[in-house]
Design a protein that fits this description.
By secondary structure, the protein is mainly α. The chain is 71% helix and 0% strand. Helix 6 packs antiparallel against helix 7.
Length: 136
């Protein structure tokens, strides 16, 4: 099982979609050679995560905006917003994913792909989202 890699691929797909490219998410998925290294369970997780975030983006943005006090979403780095959307979706709609796992994985993605302060920022926002939507 490699959910970390599944999340990384999902983040890249959703980030590419946020840039408004002409490729569909399924085309991006097909081009990612990393997908072949995932087992069936991780591929299903990846597909559910991407489809869920894509389908509920407006709702997720509303939740994130509520917790990003003093910031408009259009001021956030796209990669940070993509990571926040994914983790918020996991916290709100994937109860089988532990809160700590969703937040820690998001922080790790932020460290790898975000700016210097992204990981702390994302950690704080997701902590607030988790307190509102999960009781673990």
């Amino acid at each position: 099982m490699n959910r970390s890699l599944a999340r990384e691929i999902a983040m890249k797909m959703l980030y590419a979609a946020s840039l408004g490219g002409e490729e569909s998410m399924s085309e991006v998925l097909e081009q990612s050679e990393q997908v072949d290294t995932l087992d069936d369970g991780d591929k299903t997780f990846l597909e559910n995560l991407v489809a869920g975030v894509y389908a509920r983006q407006e709702e997720l943005d509303g939740v994130i905006e509520k917790h990003v006090q003093g910031w408009a979403l259009n001021r956030l780095a796209r990669v940070d917003l993509t990571i926040l959307r994914m983790a918020a979706y996991e916290l709100m709609y994937m109860p089988e994913v532990p809160v700590g796992a969703a937040i820690n994985e998001a922080v790790e993605l932020a460290k790898a792909y975000g700016e210097d302060k992204s990981s702390g920022f994302i950690n704080g926002i997701l902590g607030s989202v988790a307190r509102e939507h999960r009781s673990e």
